[in-house]
């Protein structure tokens, strides 16, 4: 049995990472004015990491998600419902953006709680699906799930005690 070695495709690799970083940048853009105020008023008291640490964590997670997406992209011809999977994958970024705007800009902790539940379900579903296709890709999504679960916990705390 001859094993085929695929040539590393640099441009798709960079595009996948860039997509994730762009979604993070869009979230930062839409919440930039209110995020500093949020950290000054609520974030420090709840155990949120500092804003500079949060930004670094988000960048690292975005890169990991981009690598995971690239690994899935490499196997796209073998995946029966590839475009459905990509829609699922991208929808988590949209829900995350909506959560961020709802939570930080509008301080609507009730609606943001439902968005957080939806986000965790989407990430979990994506992680499991990625893992079934490529174990490394699935594992690379776990830091995002852990991060969002931690932020979700702090968000629920803020909702219930405010």
Automatic annotation (TrEMBL):
Superkingdom per UniProt: Bacteria
Subcellular location, principal: membrane
Alphabetical list of Gene3D superfamilies matching this protein: TspO/MBR protein
Keywords on record: Membrane, Transmembrane, Transmembrane helix
UniProt-recorded name of the protein: TspO/MBR family protein
This protein's record includes keyword Kinase: no
Coiled-coil annotated spans: none
Organism classification: Bacteria, Pseudomonadati, Bacteroidota, Sphingobacteriia, Sphingobacteriales
Family the UniProt entry places it in: Belongs to the TspO/BZRP family.
Keyword Membrane: yes
Cited InterPro entries: TspO/MBR-related_sf, TspO_MBR
Subcellular location: Membrane
Membrane disposition: Multi-pass membrane protein
Sequence intervals crossing the membrane: 12-31, 51-73, 85-103, 109-131, 138-159
